[in-house]
Design goal:
- This protein has 4 helices and 4 strands.
- It has helices spanning 28-43, 65-75, 96-108, 118-121; strands spanning 12-18, 47-54, 81-84, 112-115.
- The protein is globular, with a radius of gyration of 14 Å.
- By secondary structure, the chain is of the alpha/beta class.
- The longest helix has 16 residues, at 28-43.
- Helix content is 34%, strand content 18%.
- It starts with 11 loop residues before the first strand and ends in a 7-residue tail after the last helix.
- Strands 2-1-3-4 form a 4-stranded parallel beta sheet, sandwiched between helices.
- β3, α3 (96-108) and β4 (112-115) form a beta-alpha-beta unit.
Length: 128
């Protein structure tokens, strides 16, 4: 992985939120995840380039419009990290192999996954 020289601006990150089960106005779960993600970024001096949301329910991240946007940002080099509340936001435990596929893809593109939920935030990368 390449190191980034220190500069005045922090490398941009994307905050990915997949929490609410219904479309439409962001519900409490989405708002909580966004607030937590913004606080996580601020405490660590990270700049959120974009907040991407999806409706919870589709197990395969590749089938979600928001996750496809995350991949697009990664491919174009616009972000260095993806902030996610917890692993099941990427893919549920019942489809953990899909989560591992996606986090491996991100790692292959030099992008870290960081969890913003306090009990997981000390573990900066996806556990293998």
């Amino acid at each position: 992985m390449t190191s980034h020289p220190h500069s005045e601006t922090a490398p941009p990150v994307v905050l990915y939120v997949c929490a609410d089960r219904a479309r439409g106005t962001p519900g409490e779960a989405t708002q909580c995840a966004q607030t937590e993600g913004r606080a996580f970024a601020q405490e660590r001096g990270l700049t959120i380039a974009e907040v991407v949301t999806d409706t919870y329910g589709e197990p395969d991240p590749a089938q979600r419009k928001g996750w496809r946007r995350v991949r697009q940002l990664v491919q174009t080099g616009h972000v260095t990290e993806v902030l996610v509340r917890w692993p099941s936001a990427i893919a549920p435990e019942s489809a953990h192999e899909l989560r591992h596929r996606e986090t491996a893809w991100l790692h292959d593109h030099g992008v870290r996954v960081r969890y913003t939920w306090a009990p997981l935030s000390s573990k900066s990368d996806e556990a293998w």
